[in-house]
Amino acid sequence: MGLIRLLLTSMARVSAFRSYQFVFLIVAALAVVAFYYFGTERQNFSTTTRRMKQTQASYGTGSDVITPDRAATTNFHVLMMFTKADGNSGLQRKMRIALSSLLQHASFQDGEQLHLHFVSDDASKGIGHQALAELLVNATFNYEVRFHSVIKLTERLFPIVKAMQKHFSAGSGTYYSDAIFFLSVAMHRIMPADIKRIVQLDLDLKHRVNIRELFEEFQNFPSGAVIGIAHEMQPVYR
Ligand SMILES: *[C@@H]1O[C@H](CO)[C@@H](O)[C@H](O)[C@H]1NC(C)=O
């Protein structure tokens, strides 16, 4: 039950911001996103990487690009949007609930590593980083935290999703800054090629089970599937 609930509540919402209103558009309901790369593009991933704990000796010096010897490691990638958190105590509180519950239930074996990816602006990154430093102190499994710049991701996303945005935005405009809400549908174009599978989660969740279980959903993907979509069950989106 816990897993089902997690799935249902973790669906990404694609929304468009206007000055005075939130317009919730398609409920893309993305629970699980898989990447299948065809290997042509090797893009320079514009992120700031910060390793909060050295988990394996072979990982080098903690620079931006990680090129570890991961042959023996199974990686579990989770991505969360964490932006505009500065001065937003409500969002900060939710983030702490989401992350502390995630970490509390998380369990991984030797040879496995949890990768937490955050898409953030500078101020939010600072806030997230501080919270994670506290929340991760007792973690007993291997993990890695990466913060990705929302500005740089938006820059790269916009040309890719612009055409789509037009059809899912209220009003006539295609707003540059809205492009980031389409991240889930174009992640395979902009994330590092070594990431084959990633789960995108909202931060207004409370986890009740081991996040690792969610990755079992990938076993239900037919070969060639690039995305997993589930029904949004919250009445507000119906
Ligand atoms: C870490 O463990 C200590 C000792 O058991 C506990 O007091 C503290 O609350 C834990 N911190 C977190 C973030 O779970």
From TrEMBL:
Q: Does the keyword Transmembrane apply?
A: yes
What protein name does the entry list? Answer: XXLT1 xylosyltransferase
A Gene Ontology term for the protein's cellular component: endoplasmic reticulum membrane
Keywords, in A-Z order: Membrane, Transmembrane, Transmembrane helix
Single biological process term from Gene Ontology: protein O-linked glycosylation via N-acetyl-galactosamine
In terms of domain of life, where is this protein from? Eukaryota
Which InterPro entries does UniProt cross-reference here? Nucleotide-diphossugar_trans, XXLT1
Give the organism's phylogenetic lineage: Eukaryota, Metazoa, Chordata, Craniata, Vertebrata
Q: Name one GO molecular function term.
A: xylosyl alpha-1,3-xylosyltransferase activity
Kindly list the residue ranges recorded as spanning the membrane: 20-39
